[in-house]
Amino acid sequence: MAITMTKGQAGLTGNSAIAYAMKQINPDVCPAYPITPSTAVIEEFASYVADGAVTTELITVESEHSAMSACIGAAAAGARVMTATSSQGLALMWEMLYIASGMRLPIILTDVNRALSAPINIHCDHSDSMGARDSGWIQLYSETVQEAYDNLIQAVRIAEDETVQLPVMVCLDGFITSHAIENITLLSDEEVQGFVGEYNAKTTLLDIDHPVTMGAMSLPENYIDFKFQQSEAIARSKDTVLKVAEDFEKRFGRKYGLFEGYRLEDAEIAIVILNSAAGTTKVAVDELRKKGLKAGLLRPRLFRPFPFKELAEALKDKKAIAVLDRADSMNGFGGPVFNELRSALYDVPKRPKVVSRIYGLGGRDYKVKDAIAVFEELKTIAETGMVDTLQKYITI
Amino acid sequence: MADKKAVPLGGVIPEGGTADGYSTGGWRKLRPVLNKEKCTNCLICWVMCPDSAVITEDGKMIGFDLEHCKGCGICAMECPDKVKAIKMEEEAD
Ligand code: SF4
Ligand code: SF4
Predict the structure, then answer these.
(1) Axis crossing angle, helix A145-160 with helix A14-25, rounded to the nearest 10
(2) In a 3-state reduction of DSSP, which class is residue A281?
(3) End of a domain among A252, A287, A315?
(4) How far is the CA of B40 from the centre of ligand 2 (A)?
(5) A270 and A200 in one domain?
(6) pLDDT tens for residues A266-325?
(7) Does ligand 1 come within 6 angstroms of the Cβ of B85?
(8) A276 and A368 fall within a common domain
(9) In chain A, how many domains are there?
């Protein structure tokens, strides 16, 4: 697909931007099985392959389980590997996700967030990537098309960093971000290539002068030692995420952190929310600020590993916080971001009140008025110090 | 915290041929026993053994590597019907 740029800007959907970033990264191997709403990523990337715009080996497989299996095989052979999926596709990859991370293979996956069945639904929520949150993958969430594009390029460096060597999942909202056209700034191919650099895997199955075994069995005498090593690696990958973001900013001027705060510093009440719905919430924040309400927003960018210290630091002085989850943990105790964030705030001396609000499942619209209603509730909680409803569904 | 035990990244076994050093013979319940009189040295057992535990010398079948033979019985099964030179016997006997 030809992309027309005006002054370095192009109007692209999230999927086109991801496919374009993949073209610029030019991975060695891309095993993929298309699924709505991420189909266009692979469809457009396949055009780049067919046109000879990349040297990638595109492997069309019979399922997502096979796609991730092929990613693992190719990565074990020393290739730079990327794929994309959504919803049931990610669910079908489950078994292999843990193998990719346990084998410390720096695979990059774009997850275009979509609800899990049943009922069957093709629209956005985060139940797919949230279900994979303990699979050992680093997870970056993206509010906009621009951020999804920038995150994918940074993901390569994060995954392949010597101290990390873990797979990375870049998440963006199905349809809302994947299919909406946004004006974004693209980097040149040279800039992307210069940033990601060449990948040289330390151990590869194809290096026959140094034969190795990968994916072998490990019993009680050392399984836990491998898991300890993996746990340390994902915990310290937080520093790499920041280091890579810093270099990205230095080269290209766009700044990213572990999270984004919007009018957060002097806020008394705040909403914590992932991905595109943060944009809607920012409009609500601006409207309420005009009325003198000290509202703010925190949008986590990195969810795995969970930057608990930094989030607690940013929220410690707030009076009341609502964590809005676009996924339900089905635990009778709120959503996944709520649970972890509330736990992160436990050691704060003046603990803010924290409530869980589940919104937008299966693509239900989340509007400015919904955000305003949450802020109004928070205002009452802040004034009275009393929480009436700890957890509930909104937008229903 | 420093790594308590330094283990290779991602469970990689950083050298080749390490299966040789892993004694799988202890898993065996049945032991293959060769009847040299009957054996025609067709080497079908050598081809079929999944553990490379059939030992040959100068193109002749001479016995089993019991350090690695897991006692699966494939050799006994695959030895041609007319010959049946391998019998599986209880280890315990
Ligand atoms: S019993 Fe199985 S492992 Fe042992 S020699 Fe025969 S085929 Fe090989
Ligand atoms: S298969 Fe039977 S006949 Fe052939 S070499 Fe083995 S033991 Fe001998």
Answers:
(1) 30
(2) helix
(3) A252
(4) 6
(5) no
(6) 999 999 999 999 999 999 999 999 999 999 999 999 999 999 999 999 999 999 999 999
(7) no
(8) yes
(9) 2
Amino acid identity of A197? G
Tell how far the Cα of B48 is from the centroid of ligand 1, in angstroms: 8
Its domain, for residue A76, covers 9-252
Query: Is residue A67 in a domain?
Result: yes
* Dihedral (Cα; A333, A382, A261, A148), 10-degree rounding: 30
User: ipTM greater than 0.85, yes or no?
Assistant: no
Atom 8 of ligand 1: nearest residue by CA position: B49
CATH number, domain of A347, equals 3.40.50.920
Residue among B1, B3, B12 minimizing CB distance to A214 = B12
- Region class of B11: left (phi > 0), else alpha (psi between -120 and 50), else beta: left
Separation CA A65–CA A364 (nearest Å) = 29
Structure tokens at A330: 């089905």
Q: Residue A3: inside a domain, yes or no?
A: no
- The answer for A52, left when phi > 0, alpha when psi is -120 to 50, beta otherwise, is left
Q: Does ligand 1 lie within 6 Å of residue B79's CB atom? A: no
Residue of chain B with shortest Cα separation from A236: B1
| Domain endpoint, select from A224, A252, A280 | A252
Pair A395, A365: CB distance under 8 Å: yes
Does the pLDDT at position A82 exceed 80? yes
What domains, with CATH codes, occur in chain B? 23-90 (3.30.70.20)
Do B10 and A212 lie within an 8 Å CB cutoff? no
Q: How far apart are CA A340 and CA A333, in angstroms?
A: 11
Residue A215 lies in a domain: yes
Nearest listed ligand to the Cα of residue B86: 2
Give which of A261, A286, A274, A282 is closest to A337, Cα–Cα.
A274
Question: Looking at residue B2, what is its pLDDT?
Answer: 47
